[in-house]
Amino acid sequence: MAKQVVIVDPLTRIEGHLKIKVEVENGVVTDAFSSGEMFRGWEIILKDRSPLDAPPIAQRICGVCPMPHGTGAILALDDAFDVKPPANGRIIRNLMLGAEFIHSHLLHFYHLSALDFVDITAVLNYKGMDPKLNKIKDWVKADLDAKVASAGAPFLPRYEGDYIQDADVNLQAISNYIKALEVRRKAHEMLAIFGGKIPHCQTLFPGGVATILDLDKIVAFRSRLSEIRAFIDNQYIPDVVAVASLYPSYFKIGRGAGNFLSYGGFPIDDSGNQYYTSGVYADGNISEFDAKYVAEFVKYSKYSSGSGLYPLDGETTPDAKKSGAYSWLKAPRYNGKVVEVGPLARAIITYIKGTDPDLKNLLDSALTMLGLEPEDLISTMGRHAARALELKLLADKMDEWADELDPGKPVHTKFKIPMKSDGMGLTEASRGSLGHWISIDNWRIENYQAVVPTTWNGGPRDDSGNMGPYEQALIGAPIADVNNPIEVGRIIRSFDPCLACAVHIMEGDREILKFRVC
Amino acid sequence: MLISRKRFLQISAGSIAGIALSNLWLPKLLSASNAKNGKGRLPIIWFQAQACSGCPVSFIDTEYPGVDEVLIEVITLEFNPVIMGAAGDQALGVIDRMITEESGKYILVVDGSIPLEEDGLYCAVGEKDEKPITALEWINKIAVNALAVVAVGTCATWGGIPAAPPNPTGAVPASKVVKDKPVINIPGCPPHPDWMVGTLVNVLKYGIPELDSLGRPIMFFGPEKLIHDNCELRQYFDTGIFAKDFGDKGCLYELGCKGPVAHCDVSTRGWNSGVSWCNRSGGPCIGCTEPFFPGGTGSGLYEKLPGAEVPGLEKINASANTIGIALGGAVVAGIGAHAAARMIATKYRQYKDEKNREKGTPYILKEKEEEEDK
User: Fold this and answer.
1) pLDDT tens, position by position, A448-474
2) Contact across the interface for B190 and A42, Cβ inside 8 Å
């Protein structure tokens, strides 16, 4: 059977502009290319501005995950200014970042990914009394009866394929799609209680936060958190398990690089201990993370600056006509290895290091229930499972942290902008490991670099020709119908791509497209 | 929430004659949407250019009406990359169908700026004959057949951060690309969901809302919506109590608040279901709805606004501090702190102009200013 080329452009229900191209032979993917299609030059724009502008402007790299970028930026400033937040400041930052995780993970499962599995048309056969489901049913039915071309928009049209047949699972998921809109809105409310507004909050400053902390904020925050925790336990996790148990093959599909990285995140004290452990799992071995091994390669990226550089030494000098280059995305590597970042990476590293017994117990019982081996987690469905379970534990932890807040104590430590300094801010974003690097000279930003999760996961081949995790995950995947490549979306969406934060790849010597974040 | 009291009274009195644009477009709009699906919903193509998706994420944060209500009762969201089921050619096919079958009946919503450098290749969606199709091409193609264009977010309205110096990609707002169509500008980084939903409801029910000279709906961005005039920390300003450090109580002027020059209604509406807003949280307003946002190279979002002379307070080159103390003492009748704020605003504009001239103004700002001057 001849090779068939399948292009999905734009790949929707993600953040940003992504194009995926695969070559299919005998129903199996044999080659894959992932292209980001947007460049804005954030790092160039930040140059020569006040260092205090970094948190608000860096947040605006991405409207789905602004808080992680804000966190990376303030941690870089804390480091450069040599200032530490007081306990209240540290906790409020954690609570705001945690609220972002809740919003982001729920959005990802229900509103971005579920439509790849759940049959939205099942609502037409609904016979129950739920007013919202009946409203949707009447709406779609009326438009279908009237033969309106856009019936069911924006949910239809869609690729046809092996959607869920079980009516109960479908209806439960559709009902929770609507409920989750409200729940994730409340997660944003939690963030805004301490941050003023979101997307793009107002209170992130070196040395802590600007939030005026009083009791009613804490109560308003915890009350919403309690409601959301109930949703996670009683709806989100059961829905993920229901979908996972109907698609066991997706525990074998979309494995990816098989190496993992976590910077760690959510500082829990002043001595560097973090809730998410840091570490590297590569070639079957676990090791401690050391930032000095992070390097960005540009052999196949359209930059005239040097290759294999530590981010702070990196530059963003576009060179559209660079010979042999095919991507606007730099290829970050850890000690030369292709690594995946994100909830699955955090879960694997934490599981192997044994640093969180709660997570290990949850993962083990989930594996037993689904009849799986730990190895099966490294897959499309494993990413969904890891994301759901980590959110449950994080939300529980957030309630403990909120209880530690003390309204009588300061939220902020005074800082002075240094004339010359460097700083590094490493954190875990909902989508994975995120690093910001700042260099200050003459009280202004001299250089700014961000290496984002989607760059790690969606980046191009490196100087040695190794493919990035997205491309590796696609290789070997079955495509049942090249006119309805529903499998491509399932695999790529499991990574939770965020393109405003990064990508561009190309094929041979022919440029496909431009892209890169930041 | 959706319309101002003044506007409501105008409508109930059957008098929208003062709003020329509405009269012009209203009959066409209503017949268009009626023809569409018999339910009076507004067909929307929501196209993302150099965006961060903060605008659509804010849009789905709408509380009343909820986003499900909006999707079922207010609009038909034909195309939006973040939410839609379709992908690839199937998704782009929706746009092609709309352009041919629904010409002149749909609204184009744009978030993100549009890059012009490198033939627009800094942002592309889909391809034709193996060549990427740029955002610029898409927007031209969709706008020509649209009834009207709604630019949401500061990138699509003024250029925003992508257009900040040195504007590496030649980013411009929608109004610089779209010709011969009404463009409604809903700025904000991101815009409040009520501004977006409210404007769409207004377009659907009453036609294009009354706009100011920059194309902003005055019900959300009018001159009386100056943040400083409606700020809950205003009492601190009037009595001269200023926060000196982040997390302190007091007016945020000294920490760089842009409330005296920023227009929008969040100080009364509140953000995220009204739980807070910028200044209430302690984070000073950075003026994200304004054409000057985020300022030129070398500037800082938290630079203090320059001092202002207050009319009636002779020879006091007052900083906000002294203004506050002076007015708090209630020495001078008839001098509202209002006036002081206006003076600050004017001063700030002059200051910013000078600063921009020094550092190189993003050209979109220059053009906006020229338009304002006219």
Assistant:
1) 988 899 999 988 888 998 999 999 999
2) no
DSSP 8-class letter at A15? B
3-class secondary structure for chain B?
A: CCCCHHHHHHHHCCCCCCCHHHHHHHHHHHHHHHHHHCCCCEEEEEEECECCCHHHHHHCCCCCCCHHHHHHHHEEEEECCCCCCCCHHHHHHHHHHHHHHCCCCCEEEEECEEECHHHHCCEEEEEECCEEEEHHHHHHHHHHCCCEEEEEHHHHHHCCHHHCCCCCCCEECHHHCCCCCCEEEECCCCCCHHHHHHHHHHHHHHCCCCECCCCCEHHHHCHHHEHHHHCCCHHHHHCCCECCCCCCCCECHHHCCCHHHCECCHHHHCECCCCECHHHHCCCCCCCCCCCCCCCCCCCCCCCCCCEECCCCCCCEECHHHHHHHHHCCCCCCCCHHHHHHHHHHHHHHHHHHHHHHHCCCHHHHHHHHHHHC
A187 touches chain B (CB under 8 A): no
- Is the Cβ–Cβ distance between B368 and B172 less than 8 Å? no
Q: Summarize pLDDT for B232-244 with one digit per residue, the tens.
A: 999 999 999 999 8
Question: Consecutive sets of 10 residues in chain B, 374 residues long: mean pLDDT of each?
Answer: 46 34 36 45 94 95 92 92 93 95 94 92 85 93 95 97 91 94 96 96 89 95 93 93 88 91 94 96 94 78 68 37 36 38 54 49 39 52
- Is A130 an interface residue toward B (CB < 8 Å)? no
Contacts of A210 in chain B (CB under 8 A): 246-247, 255, 281-284
- Which residues of chain A from 272 to 311 reach within 8 Å of chain B, CB to CB? none
pLDDT single digits (tens) B270-321: 999 999 999 999 999 999 999 989 987 656 788 887 754 443 333 333 344 3
Beta-carbon separation of B54 and A53 below 8 A? no
Residue to substitute from B76, B79, B83, B246, interface A, most A β-carbons within 10 A: B246
The residue among A419 and B318 whose pLDDT is bigger is A419
- Rounded to two decimals, the ipTM of the complex is 0.93
At A47-57, the pLDDT tens digits run 899 999 999 99
- Contact A321/B at CB under 8 A: no
CB contact residues (below 8 A), chain A span 26-85, against chain B: 37-42, 44-45, 47-50, 52-53, 56-57, 60-64, 66
Chain CA centroid to CA A297, Å: 22
Distance from the Cα of residue A359 to its chain's centroid: 19
pLDDT tops 90 at residue A127: yes
Q: Is A396 left (phi over 0), alpha (psi -120 to 50) or beta?
A: alpha
Q: Do B84 and A12 touch (CB under 8 A)?
A: yes
Nearest residue of chain B to residue A86 (CA atoms): B247
